[in-house]
Each structure stands twice: as C-alpha cells, then as structure tokens.
Amino acid sequence: MTTTYSETIKAKPFLKWAGGKSQLLPEIQSILSLQFNYCHDPFTYIEPFIGGGSVLFYMLKTFPNLEKVIINDINIDLTVAYQTIKIDPKKLIDTLQEIEKEYYGLNSIDSKNEFFLEKRQEFNQKNTDNNIENTALLVFLNKTCFNGLYRVNSKGLFNVPFGKYIKPKICDAENIWSVHECLQKTIILNGDFEQTLQYVDKKTLFYLDPPYKPIKTTSSFTSYTKENFGDSDQFRLKEFCDKINETNCKFIQSNSDVRNYDKKNSFFDELYKKYNINRVKARRNINSKGAKRGKIDEILIDNFI
User: Fold this and answer.
1) pLDDT score of 124
2) Does the domain spanning 82-170 belong to CATH 3.30.230.10?
3) Model-level pTM?
4) SS3 content of the chain, % helix, strand, coil (to 5)
C-alpha cells in the first residue's frame, strides 16, 4: 500500500497560542462530514487568522488533495515565523539550540528570569532585520513566558512575564522540519483578513478564527497586535462571510459565546441568523488562575447545509 503525503505529516503547532483550536477539531471534523465531499477533488484552503495553525495542520494531514493553501495574519512576527520555517529551518534550529543551551546552563530561577527579560527587551527593540533571530526570540519567549501567551500592549510591545519554567523544550527540531515540509505548498500573507478573498477558487474552504469578542466586560486579556479587533471588525467579518457564501464556497468560523455570562446577549445569534450556529464546550486556558480555566461554550458558525 502506497503511503500518501498526508500520512507522512507529523507537524503540530510550533507555538503555544492562546485559544488554539486543537480541542475543537472533533467538532470541526463533524461539520466537514456533513457535506464536505472534497476528499478526492482538488480544492483550496484559506485561513485568514492563522494563529498557532492547529486546524491548518489537521487539514494538511486529512486532505492530501489540497491544491492551494493560503494562510494570513495581521501579526507580522507570527507570519515572519511561518515564512522563516518555510525558507530556512536549519538556521532557525541552530539559533534555537544555542539559546536553549545557554538557558539550560543557568543555575537559578532568578538568572533564568534575567535572561528572559533580556531576550524580551531584545525582541521588542527590533534592532535587527534578521528574520532568523526575530523568530528564534519569538519561539524562546513563547516557550518560557507565563502560560505560553503572546500578548502585546498598546505600543505593540510584548509584555508577558516570565513563566518560571526550569527546562522547557525550546528547540523542537523534528517538528520544525515537519512544519517546513507542510509549508512548501502554502502561500503566507501578512495583513487584513479581507485580502484573502482574492484567492477564492471554484472549490474553496475558509476556516476563520478571529480574535474573540470578550464574553465579559471585565475580560482583561488584551491583544495579539496593538490594533484591537472590536465590534466594527466583527460586523466586517460577517460581511466577509456573506461574500464567501455568495461565491458558493464554504466557511467555518469559531468565536466566543457571549451568552456564557449573559443569556440574553444575542450578538452572534442575530448577526449570523442566516447561518448554522453550534455551541460547543471548550476549555479556557489563558486565565491566570488555574481554577478558572474550566470549560465554557464557544460557537462554531458555518454555511454548510
């Protein structure tokens, strides 16, 4: 029996990303099974908010007939990281191994914290145009900061504190090579999500994972970029979904369920009333208090029959 390309893929997200969608994959797979007969016919896959890439790697493993893959994000550090792994994984691995060796050689939490803060400052200063160094710093900070978050302040500066990890896996060389293999068939864009519409083909699937609408007015987690994704962007995203639907292509969108704390809040139910809305349980992983990381509802919106 011949081994297919998809069966050789072992790639997984190379960054821990708040709101990562690994836990929603069974529900996404269930939606795809309703009508998605792309198992044999070539099709295009577009992900306008790539984030950690859980769904991307699932699609690459599941559908070897993907003809084109387009990913996008407004976070330039993130898209540079994808581009770097696509083009030059060897130099990235070498740089990460040097950082990892130096970090492991530090004998106390205080010295590790000092090293972390130095690297965070270096990352924020952006004194280099070297994409290898910038990506290595991004990966290092992601593996050693508190809870693996990526968060910036209003000035666009990464501000997550040290996570006090003794010996985290900073350089996963095997996975970087696997991600490199996956990205060879992928177009990587940096910018607003609407630009991805130009890549629509006759048979196209979009997966949309925008910055979530806060479920409480007291929600404190800020942003992955200095530009917030507010209600006006949520309305614009809905219009974008309408455009996808008008092309007879398919989309799945994940978002927060604002009814978790206000049962009368019908923001998404009204906004997407012409589409399917499914509520699914998902674990909230970014709260600073472990006891508050329980399961809450999220929503999956789609235009499948």
Assistant:
1) 95
2) no
3) 0.90
4) 45, 15, 40
